[in-house]
């Protein structure tokens, strides 16, 4: 019966046949359902293996231990028998410490010691602890122990049971074969590869279901288990599927420095929290795609499978992959109502992260191509600010110690272990207060150090958010590719391929009873800033640029030439850079501005980075012949080109021009002056239809015409308007989605109110009777009605 239902869903219209997944139905507003008899039975027949290898105690993170405890508690509360939950964690129940904790530095100004000897002496120490999960015996996360467990458990896991394999850990990328990445286990060179895990799973009964949830770097590689490459030729093995925090070529959130010491962020925390609320792994996966504001890219084995089918089909036809996928998407959009749940998911992700809602891979191409480069460049900029801050801090600290020699004696006590942690914290607070007071006595130094710190933080934050933005693009790409894959399965695939996909989707549909006590523990992520806001902040953090590589002049040469400690020898001059235009040459020695030679090592870097862009500045230079001269140099902006991410335009800005194809009425004439209302809509969109009475009232009030814009083809509109419908008088088609992108539309309906001066008065998405068209529209209607 399930197979027949699948065939109907594949060949007909899922949204009309009730075939969309529970997770997507929830997105459409169905809400949480109570625990079903099926979910209770699945929990009772669930066996769980939870793994954190950890590697060694220096890289074994506390967050991994928190993940293990949370997923174990969730499974217990959902009705999984405790004797069916096995936990492999680092060195198991060995009492020796296997995890190193470093508490968050309590002093907010501790950054002032970065680059100084006091930084290492006074920072919070690593504390070695032993992994413990309350009420659970921990087994060592070694290949031997895991292999032994599988050998002994193969007979106890019965046909019809489900084995849930959860991994929170480090993962390593196999540079020679991304289809065989590894999970880091406990101990030197201990790991578990895709093929090795596949070989272990092959020993289970073929009627056992295996569902993986993996939250480590490069975890998407484990989707390759569906290929069965690690099994003996004649081993059937169980059905295997899973959910992964990252693609095979991407790190997970824990590998980003911005997340060190942070708890309750990332794929696992979001997934576990959502699973506790709903009980459905599919729903938890989708919720995580919307709420996880980290660089993770959640994906599933079914996504992996259709992607593989599409790549093979594109290659067979001699087409580029993206071109082939977009051709299938164009077919899908012939009936967008059918894909409403998936479109709403794209809209939700777009709205959460300030993106427009795409309908093709082409719309994501520039961001996918450019964002990695931007993130990398901003990371380099952040590193440059940090290194320059370290240099300035070090020079400033040396002056401080020279003026306050008692501090050198006091700091020496910390190296002999003579102070406990409480006294160290007190000493650190006093030191920072004295150091800040000393620094303020030289306003130029104080301002320079503070600026270096702030710009470094801004550049680092921007670099990280660019990584998140790239992850969001990749999440949307997964959704679009899977839609295209479903079109392929309906129209081009053979029966075996369709059956394989059905089996994977059914495997992934693991449900257990919700655990309400554990749900809702995570805060709603902070508002993700619009891309334009990030660009403005990052642009302010970009340094001025001279375009050279340099190194400090060594002491013997400095003494010979009578130079200060900051004199710098030019190693490279980039063609066309400001330094090249100023006449600087390789082997030149830059001594500093006239009358103010550089006195600190690498001071030329901070001088350049903090220089006003576009303003000429003079530098004294000595050439290879020993001839001294002064050059005039105009620092330029750091060379960085931002990708273009569509709108929305700012309120108050002039409404951008758009080109539309008329379906009814004259859109170009209405757009030639204001006021008017842009109404982005779709025939399948229920809230769009609900807004029609308010839009008609807007037109009747004389406030201005409504221009209803859709990206659907005329044939679909013909069918829609075959019924007698009240509708705004101007209807236009945006065939290439230029208007949707220009206005950054992240969902339908979207309303844009343009005033009489042609400026954007308001823009928002979504409709409710209470909100209507917004205060600005009501005010404009009231003015029109009051006019004689």
Can you put this structure into words, describing what you see?
The protein has about 800 residues and is of the alpha/beta class. It has 28 helices and 25 strands. Strands 5-2-1-6-10-11-12 form a seven-stranded mixed beta sheet. Strands 20-23-22-21-24-25 form a six-stranded mixed beta sheet. α3 (about 20-30) packs across α10, α11 (about 300-315) packs across α12 (about 320-330) and α14 (about 365-405) packs antiparallel against α17.
Identify the overall geometry: globular
Which strand order does the major sheet show? Answer: 5-2-1-6-10-11-12
Span between termini:
68 Å
Instruction: Give unreliable regions as ranges.
Output: 1-20, 25-32
Helix content, binned percent: 40-55%
Oligomer: single chain
Radius of gyration: 31 Å
Structural class by SSE content: alpha/beta
Task: Name the average pLDDT.
Answer: 89
Number of strands: 25
Major sheet description: 7 strands, mixed
Strand content bin: 5-15%
Total helices: the number is 28
Topology:
Blueprint: H1 2-11, H2 14-17, H3 22-30, H4 37-44, E1 46-52, H5 62-77, E2 85-89, E3 99-102, H6 117-122, E4 126-129, E5 138-139, H7 143-153, E6 162-167, E7 171-172, E8 182-184, E9 191-193, H8 194-201, E10 209-214, E11 239-244, H9 267-278, H10 281-291, E12 299-300, H11 301-317, H12 321-332, H13 340-353, H14 365-403, H15 405-415, H16 421-440, H17 443-491, H18 495-508, H19 531-541, E13 544-545, E14 548-552, H20 555-561, E15 568-573, H21 578-581, E16 589-592, H22 603-609, E17 617-622, E18 628-633, E19 636-637, E20 661-664, H23 667-671, E21 676-680, H24 686-690, H25 692-700, E22 706-710, H26 714-720, E23 730-733, H27 738-742, E24 750-754, E25 760-765, H28 775-786
Parallel strand pairs: 1-2, 1-6, 2-5, 6-10, 10-11, 21-22, 22-23
Antiparallel strand pairs: 3-4, 7-8, 8-9, 11-12, 13-19, 14-15, 15-16, 16-17, 17-18, 20-23, 21-24, 24-25
Helix pairs in contact: 3-10, 3-13, 5-9, 9-10, 10-13, 11-12, 11-17, 11-18, 12-17, 13-17, 14-15, 14-17, 14-22, 17-19
């Amino acid at each position: 019966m399930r197979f027949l239902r699948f065939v109907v869903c594949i060949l007909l219209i899922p949204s009309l046949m009730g075939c969309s997944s529970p997770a997507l139905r929830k997105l459409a507003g169905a809400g949480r359902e109570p625990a079903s008899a099926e979910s209770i039975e699945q929990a009772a027949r669930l066996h769980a293996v939870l793994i954190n290898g950890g590697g060694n105690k220096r890289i074994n993170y506390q967050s991994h231990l928190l993940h293990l405890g949370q997923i174990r508690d969730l499974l217990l509360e959902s009705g999984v028998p405790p004797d069916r939950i096995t936990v492999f964690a680092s060195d198991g129940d060995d009492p020796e410490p296997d995890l190193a904790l470093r508490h968050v530095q309590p002093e907010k100004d501790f950054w002032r010691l970065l680059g100084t000897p006091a930084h290492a002496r006074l920072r919070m120490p690593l504390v070695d602890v032993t992994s413990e999960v309350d009420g659970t015996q921990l087994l060592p996360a070694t290949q031997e122990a895991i292999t032994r467990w599988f050998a002994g458990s193969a007979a106890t896991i019965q046909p019809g049971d489900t084995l849930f394999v959860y991994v929170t850990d480090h993962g390593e990328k196999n540079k020679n074969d991304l289809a065989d990445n590894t999970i880091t286990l406990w101990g030197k060179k201990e790991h578990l590869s895709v093929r090795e895990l596949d070989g272990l799973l092959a020993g289970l009964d073929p009627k056992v279901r295996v569902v993986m949830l993996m939250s480590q770097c490069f975890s998407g590689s484990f989707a390759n288990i569906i290929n069965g490459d690690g099994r003996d030729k004649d081993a059937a093995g169980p059905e295997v599927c899973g959910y992964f925090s990252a693609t095979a070529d991407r790190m997970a959130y824990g590998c980003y420095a911005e997340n060190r010491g942070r708890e309750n962020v990332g794929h696992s925390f979001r997934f576990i929290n959502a699973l506790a609320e709903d009980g459905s792994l599919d729903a938890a996966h989708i919720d995580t795609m919307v709420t996880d504001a980290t660089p993770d890219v959640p994906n599933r084995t079914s996504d992996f499978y259709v992607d593989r089918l599409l790549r093979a089909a594109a290659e067979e036809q001699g087409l580029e992959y993206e071109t082939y996928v977009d051709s299938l998407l164009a077919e899908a959009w012939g009936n967008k109502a059918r894909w409403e749940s998936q479109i709403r998911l794209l809209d939700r992700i777009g709205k959460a992260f300030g993106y427009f809602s795409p309908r093709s891979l082409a719309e994501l191409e520039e961001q996918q191509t450019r964002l990695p480069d931007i993130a990398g460049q901003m990371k380099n900029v952040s590193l440059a600010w940090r290194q320059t801050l370290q240099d300035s801090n070090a020079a400033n600290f040396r002056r401080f110690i020279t003026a306050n020699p008692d501090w050198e004696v006091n700091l020496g006590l910390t190296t002999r272990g003579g102070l406990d942690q409480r006294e160290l914290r007190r000493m650190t607070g006093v030191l920072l207060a004295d150091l800040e007071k000393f620094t303020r006595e030289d306003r130029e130094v104080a301002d320079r150090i503070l600026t270096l710190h702030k710009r470094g933080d801004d550049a680092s934050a921007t670099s990280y958010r660019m990584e998140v933005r790239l992850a969001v693009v990749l999440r949307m790409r997964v959704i679009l590719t899977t839609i295209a894959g479903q079109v392929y399965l309906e129209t081009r695939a053979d029966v075996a391929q369709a059956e394989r996909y059905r089996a994977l989707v059914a495997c992934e549909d693991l449900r257990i009873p919700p655990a309400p006590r554990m749900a809702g523990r995570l805060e709603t992520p902070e508002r993700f800033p619009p891309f334009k806001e990030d660009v403005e902040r990052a642009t302010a953090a970009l340094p001025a640029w001279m375009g050279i590589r340099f190194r400090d002049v060594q002491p013997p040469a400095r003494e010979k030439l009578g130079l200060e400690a900051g004199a710098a020898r030019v190693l490279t001059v980039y063609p066309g850079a400001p330094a090249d235009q100023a006449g600087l040459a390789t082997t030149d020695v830059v001594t500093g501005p006239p009358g103010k030679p550089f006195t600190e090592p690498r001071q030329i870097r901070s001088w350049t980075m903090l220089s006003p862009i576009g303003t000429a500045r003079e530098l004294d230079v000595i050439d290879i012949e020993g001839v001294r001269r002064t050059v005039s140099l105009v620092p330029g902006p750091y060379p960085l080109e931002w990708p273009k991410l569509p709108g929305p335009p700012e309120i108050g800005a002039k409404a951008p021009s758009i080109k539309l194809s008329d379906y009814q009425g004259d859109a170009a004439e209405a757009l030639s002056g204001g006021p008017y209302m842009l109404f982005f809509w779709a025939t399948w969109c229920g809230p769009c239809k609900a807004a029609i009475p308010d839009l008609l009232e807007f037109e009747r009030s004389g406030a201005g015409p409504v221009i209803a814009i859709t990206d659907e083809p005329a044939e679909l509109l013909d069918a829609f308007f075959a019924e007698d419908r009240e509708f705004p008088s101007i209807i236009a088609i945006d065939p290439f989605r230029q208007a949707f992108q220009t206005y950054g539309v992240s969902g339908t309906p979207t309303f844009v109110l343009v005033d009489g001066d042609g400026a954007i008065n308001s823009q928002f998405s979504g409709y409710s009777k209470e909100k209507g068209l917004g205060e600005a529209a009501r005010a404009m209607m009231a003015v029109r009605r009051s006019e004689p």
